[in-house]
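Much of the work behind modern protein science is quiet bookkeeping, done one molecule at a time. The protein below has been through that process, and both of its lines are reproduced in full.


***
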Amino acid sequence: MIEQYKEKIISFYQKNKRMPGYQEIMGLTGFKSKNAVYKLINKLVEMGVVAKDAKGKLSLLEEFEEVPFLGLVEAGMPSVAEESVLDTINIDSFLMPHKDRTYILEVKGDSMIEAAIQEGDMVIVEKRSNARDGDIVIAEVDGGWTMKYFRQKGTKIYLQPANKNYKDIHPTESLHIGAIVVGVIRKY
C-alpha cells in the first residue's frame, strides 16, 4: 500500500513541480487525519524517498536516478561509434554538487545569448558572495538584479553582457554577488 502512496506523491510532484502539502496528501491518499500523513511521511523519509528539512519542508529524493553514460558523440564529422555503457551518472549530483545552496532561475532577456544562455532557459546557480573574473554571476547592482559576466581589472569591477547590443554595467553605488551560474538547462 505504501508503494501506491509513494507513486501518487511522485506523480503529484512531476505534474505540479512541487511537493504536496499535508491537505493535498490527505486528498491523494484518502487519509482522514494529518497524523496519518505525518506517519506516512516519516515512513517515506526512512525509505529514502523524501527528505524533510528543519522546518518540515519536503523534498523528493528519488526524482533523479542514475542514467547510463554511453560516451561521446561527434559534433563535427561523423565517426563510427559503438554503444556500450561506460558508467552511470546521477543527474542530481552532477548538476547540483552543493544542493543545500543551489537553486534554479528562469532566464528573461537576451543579454547572455553569446554565452549560449537564452530566454526561457533555466540556470542552475549556487549561492556565493564572491566571484572570479569571467564567472557568470547573479548580482545586485545599484539596487537591481541581473545575470552577467563578472569582470575585474585591478580594482575596477563591472558586469559584462554576452550580447554585443548591450553595454557593460559599471556600478555607481553598489555591486553584490548573490550567486554563480553553474549550469544551464534547456528543453527542446
About this structure: The radius of gyration is 22 Å. Residues 115 and 181 are 11 Å apart (CA to CA). Helices lie at 2-16, 22-29, 34-47, 91-95.
